[in-house]
Design a protein that fits this description.
The chain is α/β, with parallel strands linked by helices. The strands form four sheets. The chain has a seven-stranded mixed beta sheet, with helices on both faces. A two-stranded antiparallel ribbon has the order 8-9. Strands 10-11 form a two-stranded parallel ribbon. β3, α9 and β4 form a beta-alpha-beta unit. The protein is globular, with a radius of gyration of 26 Å.
């Protein structure tokens, strides 16, 4: 990693009216009509009976949703709309005339798609964007200075800026230049509800990039102030309650057509926050596939612009929702009956406390901008030229042409391309991941805990009374040293990135990692107690942070021979320190 702190950079497009997201918003009516036309044509290619069944299923699912999970942000007269569509669908479906049945399907599909498209597509208002930028800068600057000085006097200081806490590293200049070569789609990892606001602020302030089109959960619109800003900052609405095929096709049409128009987009290909704490291993390919289709359609229009995919990896010392997320993960994979937990991490108090700890404890949030690639996962340079794995230039357009040299639609081929792209993004996540001291210490500590209890499975270990376990400091330091040697070798091969602290002494890594892990959660995953012993209040939360490095198979590089002998003295060490022997 670079030792230089990120500085604000000139904007790629100084005039906001030149931003693609603004131009799209100004043409919103035509864009909505384009989505409706595209989606309707796709639906009408289905056999009439299949289209009729799809409409029936959609009506049924929507009625259930309205009854069991209504939101105040739902469009007006929802119940009346679906009741009217349902009556007409049943009445006309009884007609055996194929022509009339097809016309009935068309009319119902038109109304449903129109309702969905109007709900999904947002707007972008320059005045709202400028206000939000000023407000966030003011808010974070005041909070940062107050936290750093630990005094209310910091409210009037401007010494510290949020941009100094957002450490942006990687292919920044390449990405900036690619904005003039085509459409940029950023695909970040996802760990916290705060990811979106932090990414948006960093892309604007630290990288000088224009605003992106991005998906926001419709549930966020339930709050009046949130809805006001979301509706005017380029977000498109995503209602995760709606699983029917018509809605999903409308959503994908919006994504594909906006990318084809040159609107830069941002979405989380993992689909949701990582519940386990691991980097994403398997991506959802729905929206990702729209980038491949958009590229093919650009070529069909005899244009040469390219769609560029930019992986982005976020690294936190501690995650706001860690306790809730790991609890959800364990309930999903385990056979035991876990009690349902409520995610209270997005309360205003919790968010302010999180930000305060980030600012007051010298924490940084790192964003690693990965190697840009084309829609087939091939790396590209700042000119947008694609290269194969041997470093040879390749013509991307050739991959979308048939034997006659004509760019053609081939859904099976594009599905395979999307799958390859997903694998390449995951590969980049792991190579561009920045390892923090807290990640390394948490991994080492939980591996030691596992080694101490070889007879127990994961759930057995997590049920152990944390208050009775002490991590031998010398053993933990030995493990960290071995793991660090492996990480340094991986860094030389460009298979991972390491924060500056990983290059410090083992003693520094241990203290720095534990101090960060222990300064936020009510039940700390790791901390020094009053007797300066390394202890834990929560093995579950420790497991969450351990998982950040779980996909690298680092545990295979721990030599337990001497460590194991020392760890056997754990109980004796504990009793000696407590004066029991």
């Amino acid at each position: 990693m670079s030792n230089n702190e990120p500085q604000p950079v000139p904007p790629v497009y100084p005039d906001i009216e030149d931003w693609p997201i603004y131009k799209l918003s100004e043409d919103r009516r035509n864009f909505v009509e384009e989505i409706e036309s595209y989606t309707l044509d796709k639906m009408l290619k289905l056999p009439p009976s299949q289209a009729r069944d799809l409409i029936s299923k959609t009506i049924y699912q929507e009625r259930i949703r309205i009854k069991e999970e209504p939101w105040k942000v739902d469009p007006p007269k929802e119940k009346q709309f679906w009741k009217r569509i349902g009556r007409r669908h049943i009445r006309l479906s009884l007609d055996t005339d194929p022509q009339q049945a097809a016309q009935s399907n068309r009319e119902n599909l038109q109304q449903i798609i129109h309702r969905y498209a109007e709900e999904i597509v947002g707007t972008f208002k320059i005045s709202t964007f400028l206000f939000a930028r000023r407000f966030l800068t003011f808010f974070f600057t005041r909070l940062l200075n107050t936290a750093a000085l630990r005094s209310i006097r910091g409210l009037w200081r401007k010494q510290h800026q949020l941009v100094d806490k957002l450490m942006v590293d990687g292919h920044i200049e390449t990405v900036r230049k690619l904005f003039h070569k085509g459409t940029v789609v950023v695909v970040p990892t996802h760990f916290s509800n705060l990811d979106s606001i932090l990414i948006g602020y960093a892309l604007d302030t630290a990288m000088g990039l224009p605003s992106f089109s991005y998906g926001a959960g419709l549930n966020l619109y339930n709050t009046g102030y949130t809805a006001y800003f979301m509706n005017r900052l380029g977000a498109y609405r995503v209602d995760r309650r709606k699983k029917n095929g018509i809605y999903l096709e409308t959503l994908k049409a919006m994504s594909m057509l906006s990318i084809k128009r040159g609107v830069n987009s941002l979405f989380f290909p993992g689909g949701t926050r990582s519940r386990s704490g691991r980097l994403e291993q398997k991506l959802k390919l729905g929206l990702l596939g729209t980038t491949v289709e958009a590229q093919r359609r650009i070529y069909q229009e005899e244009r040469e612009e390219k769609v560029f995919i930019v992986p982005l990896v976020l690294s936190y010392h501690f995650v706001l929702e860690a306790e809730f997320l790991i609890e959800q993960h364990l309930r999903q994979i385990g056979k035991e009956q876990y009690l349902k937990t409520k995610d209270s991490s997005y309360s205003p108090f919790r968010v302010l406390r999180f930000i305060w700890r980030v600012f007051s404890k010298g924490n940084n949030i790192t964003l690693s901008v990965g190697q840009p690639m084309d829609v087939l996962g091939n790396p590209v340079d700042e000119e947008g030229t694609s290269y194969d794995k041997l470093g040879r230039k390749i013509g991307l357009k050739d991959y979308f042409t048939n034997q006659q040299g004509v760019v053609n639609e081939d859904l099976q081929r594009e599905a395979e391309y999307t799958s390859i792209l997903g694998e390449k993004i995951v590969e980049r996540y792991h190579k561009d991941n920045i390892v923090l001291t807290s990640h390394l210490v948490a991994f080492a500590a939980f591996e030691l805990l596992k080694h101490q209890n070889p007879q127990l499975d994961l759930y057995g270990i997590l049920r152990l009374p944390a208050e009775e376990f002490v991590f031998p400091q010398s053993a933990l330091g030995d493990i960290i040293n071995q793991l660090r040697e492996r990480l340094l070798a991986m860094e030389k091969l460009d298979n991972i990135k390491l924060a500056d602290g990983i290059h410090e002494s083992v003693e520094y890594i241990l203290k720095d990692g534990i101090s960060h892990l222990g300064n936020f959660h009510a039940l700390s995953p790791l901390y020094f107690d009053k007797k300066q012993r390394i202890v834990s209040d929560s093995f579950k939360t420790l497991y969450f942070y351990h998982n950040r490095l779980d996909n690298y198979k680092l545990e295979k590089h721990i030599n337990w021979k001497n460590i194991g002998e020392e760890a056997l003295l754990l109980e004796e060490e504990l009793y000696n320190q407590e004066g029991r022997l």
